[in-house]
Design goal:
The protein is mostly beta strands. 9% of the residues lie in helices and 40% in strands. The protein has two helices and 32 strands. Strands 1-2-3-4 form a four-stranded antiparallel sheet. Strands 5-6-7-8 form a four-stranded antiparallel sheet. Strands 9-10-11-12 form a four-stranded antiparallel sheet, with no helix packed on it. The chain is globular, with a radius of gyration of 21 Å.
Length: 388
Amino acid sequence: MTRYLKLFSKMKQVKILALIVIALFALLLVSCVPGGAPPARGWSGTAVQDGILYTGSVDGRVVAIDIETRGEEWSYAITVPPPTTIYSTPIVDGDLVYIASYSGKVLALNTLARGQNLPFPQSRYGEWEWDCPGAKVGNNAIVADLLVTEDAIYVSSSNGRVYSLDKEFGDVNWESDILHEKLWTSPVIQGGTLYVSTFDGHIYALSAETGALLPWFFKSKAGFASSPVLYNDTIFVGSFDRNLYAIKIGDDEPLWKFPGGKWFWAAPLVNEGVVYAGCLDGKIYAIEAEAGGKLWEFDAGNPVVSSPVLMDNLLIVADESGTVYAFDLNADPEDRAVVPLRPISINAAVKGSLWAQEGLVFIRGQDNKIYVLDIERGRLSWEFPLDY
């Protein structure tokens, strides 16, 4: 009898996992299937370097915008008919912009070559394109952000593998074994080890040099929803069981888990011993990194699907409805009545990552516009439509 109960329990877990994956597929398909469905949206975030803002538009272009002139510097269309969707956020490294697409492409775009609208790729400028292998359409899709280091680019793919690419030429350094049916979370690196979370509840450790699986891994009964975040040899990650986990590298049991009302979809932010986590229950939680105790919470009233960011002493959080909150982290820690500075609404859905610097917050809304917010003045500074 015990044997059958264990078998039933295992089948139930598999069924729940399958339903989760189906729900996530539906979320992506709504934004990716052409013909009769809503247009592709994606949720690419923003990145800023040397006064230029970079993002992925909903029509599959990488767009560079001059912040001072508020004009387009250049754009490049990832030409896969129909127009591809971009979920990843551009990563800028010197003169190169790295980005991935749902069509399975990873590109290195040179800002000088794109500014001159030269044919792509210009190898003399270090440009290249890599196509992720996949047995069928969508099997090679790239949803997660890239991880770019000094030595390599690491890619999580919908074919279940992690790839290491040469930064200079885009050649494959290695590919991992299949870790799960789909990998939609970004890896994180510490020393020579990559850590990857999966929808079936694993955290795997891989050699950054060879891609080989290392002896330690962590297994949870529920799948992990968010990308992992590392802080002081501890991995912080959101789960489909509505908990945020803290897992010490090398341990078999979590250091702690913190309950939310729904999934912790967005990767948390850890700063000075405090974990800041947005949840689909509409709340932002501040949690002690060591002990897992709640310091404070704030109810935004709408799901939080993008990760918080820091700007000096301010914690910046956007909810899905497009309301942006700024919390003063220098305020009296004994004050449990957490009140944000003037909230600002852009009246557009927000799913992608934010960029914040020098008093400004840069957001790509789901309406295909860039919004620039002046946090000190508590207002929208300017906006830029990304449509042709």
